[in-house]
Acyl-CoA dehydrogenase
Amino acid sequence: MPFEIPAIVQDRVSNRARETMKKIEHFVETECIPADEIYEAQISKEPSLRWKTYPPIMDDLKKKARAQGLWNLFLSKTHYSQGAGFTNLEYGLMAEILGRSHTASESMNCSAPDTGNMEVLAKYGDDAQKKQWLEPLLDGKIRSAFLMTERFAASSDAKNINMHMRTEGNELVLNGTKWWSSGACDPRCAVYIVMCKSELNTSSDPFKQQSVVLVPAGTPGVTVLRPLSVFGYDDAPHGHAEVRFENVRVPRSNLVLGEGRGFEIIQGRLGPGRIHHCMRSIGAAERGLDYMIARVNDPNRRTFGKLISEHGTIRSWIAESRIAIDSCRLLVLNAADKIDRHDAKAALKEIAMAKIVVPRTVCDVLDKAIQAHGAGGVCQDFPLARMYAGIRTLRIADGPDEVHLAQMGRNENGRAAEIIKKHEKQEARRAELFRQYKIDGKSHL
Amino acid sequence: MPFEIPAIVQDRVSNRARETMKKIEHFVETECIPADEIYEAQISKEPSLRWKTYPPIMDDLKKKARAQGLWNLFLSKTHYSQGAGFTNLEYGLMAEILGRSHTASESMNCSAPDTGNMEVLAKYGDDAQKKQWLEPLLDGKIRSAFLMTERFAASSDAKNINMHMRTEGNELVLNGTKWWSSGACDPRCAVYIVMCKSELNTSSDPFKQQSVVLVPAGTPGVTVLRPLSVFGYDDAPHGHAEVRFENVRVPRSNLVLGEGRGFEIIQGRLGPGRIHHCMRSIGAAERGLDYMIARVNDPNRRTFGKLISEHGTIRSWIAESRIAIDSCRLLVLNAADKIDRHDAKAALKEIAMAKIVVPRTVCDVLDKAIQAHGAGGVCQDFPLARMYAGIRTLRIADGPDEVHLAQMGRNENGRAAEIIKKHEKQEARRAELFRQYKIDGKSHL
Amino acid sequence: MPFEIPAIVQDRVSNRARETMKKIEHFVETECIPADEIYEAQISKEPSLRWKTYPPIMDDLKKKARAQGLWNLFLSKTHYSQGAGFTNLEYGLMAEILGRSHTASESMNCSAPDTGNMEVLAKYGDDAQKKQWLEPLLDGKIRSAFLMTERFAASSDAKNINMHMRTEGNELVLNGTKWWSSGACDPRCAVYIVMCKSELNTSSDPFKQQSVVLVPAGTPGVTVLRPLSVFGYDDAPHGHAEVRFENVRVPRSNLVLGEGRGFEIIQGRLGPGRIHHCMRSIGAAERGLDYMIARVNDPNRRTFGKLISEHGTIRSWIAESRIAIDSCRLLVLNAADKIDRHDAKAALKEIAMAKIVVPRTVCDVLDKAIQAHGAGGVCQDFPLARMYAGIRTLRIADGPDEVHLAQMGRNENGRAAEIIKKHEKQEARRAELFRQYKIDGKSHL
Amino acid sequence: MPFEIPAIVQDRVSNRARETMKKIEHFVETECIPADEIYEAQISKEPSLRWKTYPPIMDDLKKKARAQGLWNLFLSKTHYSQGAGFTNLEYGLMAEILGRSHTASESMNCSAPDTGNMEVLAKYGDDAQKKQWLEPLLDGKIRSAFLMTERFAASSDAKNINMHMRTEGNELVLNGTKWWSSGACDPRCAVYIVMCKSELNTSSDPFKQQSVVLVPAGTPGVTVLRPLSVFGYDDAPHGHAEVRFENVRVPRSNLVLGEGRGFEIIQGRLGPGRIHHCMRSIGAAERGLDYMIARVNDPNRRTFGKLISEHGTIRSWIAESRIAIDSCRLLVLNAADKIDRHDAKAALKEIAMAKIVVPRTVCDVLDKAIQAHGAGGVCQDFPLARMYAGIRTLRIADGPDEVHLAQMGRNENGRAAEIIKKHEKQEARRAELFRQYKIDGKSHL
């Protein structure tokens, strides 16, 4: 199936984007998806080597993709000059295709958390920081990690983080522990972008106490304690690390933007990143649906004399999955478009909706795909269980769904005074009409 | 709240449409919503008068609306010349506003089934038919009914209908019974558009056996047997009738388009009508959400020391309702836009999705709004239970959800061969890569 | 189908109860269900007569039922001497059968709110009150209403009620308004059991400020303002009234149990009543499932060449409905059994579960049954929409589901300290085992 | 919390069972749960050793448990003489407690698939088979596997299996491949119970073509191809194997019960096994709920100034989880009780309900528990994700939910003729009553 752009955004997608999408789709379907299992097989299963080797096929994919101009597609033209010049909406559509394959995003230098980290450096980094870290990241030479979450705090609220930063002369001294530092286990990870609580402003504005610091991997005092698993997957070689900082010292110049400006930085980082995650998830759902359809039409798997696809329940799963996916896509594209027209802050509500709805919906689609595969669905023979596990974490990452729902509920509830006033006016007009038409306003009920 | 157009369709809405939407919104909020209860109170509760009187306030509303140019907004500019010149997408946004009030659609001559009937006459009627029926309908002088559904057949599949039509000389003779003939009880209903099974082609193409015939109300042999209720509502003065035809004779010239072309006609009729129903339902959901928010912020209804809106469960209902409504809107607008770019047939999938998703989602939102009102929610003091009942029927009208899901599932499943072929190619490429990288393709699993 | 008692309660049902159940089932299936439509038809549709006549068929049914000993079955043997001597569990099974028909409960003098009111009088009334009100109620000569809910208060919390009661000499003076006073519109309703806020203890214990007063219908100052509708149903002749009290005076001897003891009374009233409502709802669900099965096997309603029952989606609806119903039954019977073994207070949790789960589950079953009937399902031709509406109110009556969920959540959360202590002990033992088996407790993760 | 037996089964649980349950609970809470992580840590992570070592702590647990008489509790007294003498209902309650810990079932020699295999041998094995395999299994000296599922067949319908068995003289020759052979990777697994398709009866009764054969592990021609993973978990040392049979020869005396009697054997095997799985799942859900409650009351995890447990959404999760668990328990116990009163065949419907409802419900509870733990929930720090993955497979094992739903739907739909007849009788009686009361049966609608 050639990739289909929804009617409603036809006018918003340039010809160049359409051409690029076709190239991406071809590359993903013919190179990346077939490469996924090779990539997996090239990761050592020996505990001592597991986090030290890197699958050679990835470098080959990267070379091929870059040669076709499929590189750094994510930096939106509205807000950055270093990228490929697409809008968030256009890149959203591309990200969906990337989401079909485990290796696709990285092959085009579009994988998290590097994308968000490059955005941070491009937007907030000074020239030296850009030269040292942004350039090799854009070049795909190194990788990076973003260290925010903490094990013993409700760190989805950044005000709760405990990683301590103090200033000693020209140095910053960091102490604390982070976890779920995705990518920090990767042998090529060269820099950590660390969210700290600094001593500045502790008695005043709680939104000005966070600072973002660049810590080179291998800095003395940093210990990668262990990789965390997602359901049973360790996601090697990328991984999700628990990392300890004991009196880790870096120069003050490693501060991004300035002390106390951490909140500002992560707010700017989150919007497009959420769009990317959502659209990749949708791509995963499309792939799950493809697998489901292929499976239920397997002529060797007839039950009760029929192809599985002839059973009404399965038919309705297929239809519901199609609806779920197409709904999600519109929701995300609308958010991306609002970022393009304004910025991420203006699109807060739309981004939050996508963040809440897409992962849970895609998990449902994948769960149905798993179920349609029977025992095959939960094991390594299909990418379904793994995709499920990965996308399940998106209901937690950057704050659990419930926090976003509560916030959105509070904002929407902010309309109360206005609504009540409107109702009162309508009530007054209603009373007027009852009088005009000579009806007893009470008795008619 | 000023009506907000989603980012993604900003470019698709003309300034004239925006201006009209503002006028519609003002009229609905200040005239129609306050009028809803008066309209209700003006309907007699005496059984002998209930279906004979008509609420005078409606004619006043119609005059006011027409004076502001708010009239016949529904006929899309792409496909009709008689209308107000808006696209399906633009009118969709307007229909949402109309959906907030029971009296709004009719006040602007935009209410079902007249809208669909006018589309049929405009598209398929001959000049005489247009003069006799379309003109007074467009003028709001008469109303009409569409008679399709039958009590003792699975009539969501039009091939199953039994209303018999035979030709005798220059006359058509109709025999049979229809039910759920919405509007046929209305004292101003002047014409029935009746779907019949003619004797033509009975042995051949099952899609060429249906004919559409215009039957003036009051034609001898027509008996309105009884009004049907929806949950407990009879929806007077409009109503839903069971109507018997006993040797009803009309001239052959009352055939629309020609014998055996009924399928063609209803196919063309359904698309935009479903968009209208969906968008009006979304307007009802918005009103339900308004009521919910107003209620849970009522300072006299504290429980356990808090405003009801401060309870987390209610907060999440408000957020989920906002998400549900905004998702539905995008789904419908995307379908409307596809109709505008192509036609209803091209947008079959998108229309079906909207038809399936919107009513069930809006019912959920309204059910939550009811629940938030406690006992008030189910009774006549709020329009919530009534809106619920009305929209509940949309899950059945024009075929139950399950029929549409089955059809959509079958269509989507049609991709099977293509997917399987793609998977085979990927499998071949995978095998090639395993060889190239010297990995045993079996052992790695 | 002969009524089937779940395996798990086989030993808990006496032979006498089994015999009675058989008689009830026969009476309900052959007398009550056929009578339901006659009962409905005998209620006048003229507004002026609607609340003044009473369907003659009911008295005939009552005579027949009583002649067979099917009378006052609800008063449980454990707690009352006046009843038929069954346990709550046994009567629960009987109530399920009653729930299949609109007329069944009343025909055996087992209908709400009389049942709860008789329990109150039997348990808390003095001899004079019993003679005046309990005897004719037990005799089926009069009916009664329970006036608790108020329109402008969150009255699911009885502490919020506003109906004011003051003492003047030997008289009580009542002022205020109640609504949803079910049965108060009935021409045979002779007494209101009114929950008031008395002036006693207003500064101290908020649970000792409520009093229950007996007010004879027709007492000067009482005005039945209007009947409330449930969805569109007015439930005549029973009805749900809004009732105003203006300086209504009754003798002090009309107080039940004593001033300030209202809370105590309603607490005792609610348990078994909730069991009855739940079990009747289950009976309604069984009837809904019967209708669904009959409909989808109608040979005249084939779609796509198959009986509707041959479609997989419908098959799964039937199965899910069976599961839902059987699950609900076990939940309610377990609660009933706990009341029998102890009392309603001990069974608080079990009753609350049933109260929360059963109505929502039965609404789901009935909604599916409606959907399976297409347009027939929402109208007067089947009892489905009406049963849905009635049971929908049970999610609100006696407090909305959400209040019960919050309370149950709080109680269950009360286990926190105990669980945390258990986890700490297990953690200590785990550390011990790690030492014993010489494993580094940290590194293994 | 002392283990609480539902009211409804109080009379069905002997004092001896209660005493045993107390001992089991104490052993599980103080020995098994703390041992779970040690057991895990004792499994080698080196690929070459992973399936060859066995955690020493298990043997210690087994010794301790057996010393307390906690051994072979599963063989029900009604149907077997070798067991501990409890009913299925009593053992069900015990199995729930076992389900709280990964190591508990095996420590008391009550773990699948050995339990089902021992039932097969006890019920259908001849004396020699019992001596060779049942005795050491009952003694906990060896383990066993049950080989049924096949990769390339819809093997949930046993008629579809392809493993070929032919007779050559006194030998049986097996060819084919099985997968999801749980336990076949275990170094102590000594015997495979293999479901084959024999050449007998191939042209006649399709239910008489299956045979069950005992194949000692290590028989020439048997190759364990690979372990399958469940989500990311390999469940070592137990594991789920793909196993190839190439001309595997065993004596004819290794046939169980006789050629062509395989269907009969698995039918008898499944009932109690499903009860065990369900009850263990319920125990897992209880443990998940415990974790959830502990987590949301952690004073270090306040959000928005409140304990997480003070948020309404979480409160409702806790309540809904309690309801879900208690409902499931009643459903399973009712099925167990019916097996006790009759046999597994008589309890087909009740067992199927439990099989369908419990795994999906427990997955929901565990998913909420995971969500309440944030990122901690999906990783190795809590047993939640692992329990989720394990129980997720129960929606597939022994046939996917949808197959059971379809079957149950078909059975329930079998009541159609009876219902239709009942409705016709009621319709006749209704017509009679309309005449008797002189009402026009049509006009009243």
In short: Chain A touches chain B through 84 residues (CB under 8 Å). The beta strands of chain A are 143-147, 164-168, 171-182, 189-198, 210-216, 222-228, 240-251, 255-256.
